[in-house]
Design brief:
- With 207 residues, the chain is mainly beta.
- 13% of the residues lie in helices and 48% in strands.
- It has a domain of 124 residues: ntegrin, alpha v. Chain A, domain 3 (Immunoglobulin-like, Sandwich), CATH 2.60.40.
- Strands 1, 2, 3, 4, 5, 6, 7, 8, 9 and 10 form a ten-stranded mixed beta sheet that branches.
- The longest helix is centred in the first third of the chain and has 26 residues.
Amino acid sequence: MTTHGLKRRMSVLATVLGLGITVPFALASPAHAQQVLSIDKSHEGNFARGGQGLYHITLNAIGEGGASAVQVTDNLPPGLTVANLAGNLASRCQVTNSGRTVLCDDFSFAAITLTLHVTVNIATDTPCSVVNTVTATATNGDPASDSDPTTITGGDCNSGTAGNGGSLLPINLNGIFTVFNNINTNNNINSPHASNTNNQTFGLNTP
């Protein structure tokens, strides 16, 4: 009986010691903490063809340790090109792809908010509605992105047709104007006694 009791106590002690060694390792933080990036894209008002517009990009790193090897890419939609960059992220960025892409590459940051203000030129043939998407990646975190729909005004964008054809006037003139159905028939062809006939029919075009 004494021998079996000793064995049971030794077994319990070994279990406790095992938990005491194992639990701290299970609760320990991983060697590389996962970093979460947050990015937001917005703009001011509607953009007008032939003018300029302003986009705002805001980047944050959520978590401890900051973000490393960060890359931010802003691919502008058709008709928009970069005119100017400002904000505390601007010095880390360059404009590529004939003014269509903003690339901020290989930088690190921690407990600060980075901002980038992108002034764009708007071509006279820019689509009446565009979507601008910006993405951010880091070696120690998941990528983040945000899309910003933008309304373009000016030209046929103001007519409600969005450049897809249609009436020049956005009103229905049916029933307002009298229609003249004038047909002139020349019967004087190799006939010395023939005469011209002029038929006119007046009517109201009603819906």
